[in-house]
């Protein structure tokens, strides 16, 4: 294990790191929105996201919190009974078996005091994310030629699976 993983709400100081991770070529290739994002557009989106009561951004850090692992994002939908979950790792942290730990910890924080089903949309060829989400208890709910659609019900069995 590379060390204790600490997950916290994103801070304004995280904006640049998250922008760099978002624009990584591999990240963009696996993203639903693969275009590069300009700093100005990201900075505006990030500031608005930190103040959006329906968006929750969590950053994972190792050890002394100086080594950022990545980000989990949860977007509550209308009615606040369903949230879209997504994850993006710091490219320097890929291959260290950290994505499922980050996602599971983010889920625990997000679901604390909430009864919300989670869903995730993953590209068919993104085998790392498929493993990450299924390892955290998400179940395949449907698919098409480009994407797989996963769900994690809010019932206690789903929450337990996300803790493993």
Detailed description of the structure:
The structure is a single chain. The protein has 164 residues and is of the alpha+beta class. The chain is 34% helix and 30% strand. The chain has helices spanning 15-22, 25-30, 39-50, 99-111, 127-135, 156-163; strands at 5-9, 55-62, 67-76, 82-89, 117-123, 139-143, 147-152. It has a 7-stranded mixed β-sheet with strand order 1-2-3-4-5-7-6, sandwiched between helices.
Main features:
164 residues; alpha+beta; disordered C terminus; 6 helices
Summary, kept brief:
By secondary structure, this protein is α+β, with helices and mostly antiparallel strands. It has helices at 15-22, 25-30, 39-50, 99-111, 127-135, 156-163; strands spanning 5-9, 55-62, 67-76, 82-89, 117-123, 139-143, 147-152. A 7-stranded mixed beta sheet has the order 1-2-3-4-5-7-6, sandwiched between helices.
Topology:
Blueprint lengths: L4 E5 L5 H8 L2 H6 L8 H12 L4 E8 L4 E10 L5 E8 L9 H13 L5 E7 L3 H9 L3 E5 L3 E6 L3 H8 L1
Parallel strand pairs: 4-5
Antiparallel strand pairs: 1-2, 2-3, 3-4, 5-7, 6-7
């Amino acid at each position: 294990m590379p060390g204790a993983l600490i997950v916290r709400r994103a801070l304004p100081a995280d904006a640049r790191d998250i922008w760099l991770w978002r624009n990584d070529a591999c990240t963009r290739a696996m993203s639903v929105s693969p275009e590069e994002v300009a700093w100005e557009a990201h900075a505006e989106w990030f500031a608005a996201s930190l103040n959006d009561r329906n968006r929750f951004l969590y950053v994972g850090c190792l050890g002394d919190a100086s080594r950022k692992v990545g980000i989990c994002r949860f977007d509550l939908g209308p009615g606040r009974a369903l949230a879209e979950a997504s994850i993006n790792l710091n490219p320097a942290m890929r291959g260290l078996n950290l994505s499922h730990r980050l996602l599971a910890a983010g889920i625990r924080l997000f679901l604390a005091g909430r009864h919300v089903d989670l869903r995730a949309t993953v590209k068919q060829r993104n085998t790392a994310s498929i493993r990450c989400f299924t390892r955290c208890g998400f179940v395949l709910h449907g698919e098409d030629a480009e994407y797989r659609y996963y769900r994690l019900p809010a019932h206690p069995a789903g929450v337990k699976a996300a803790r493993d």
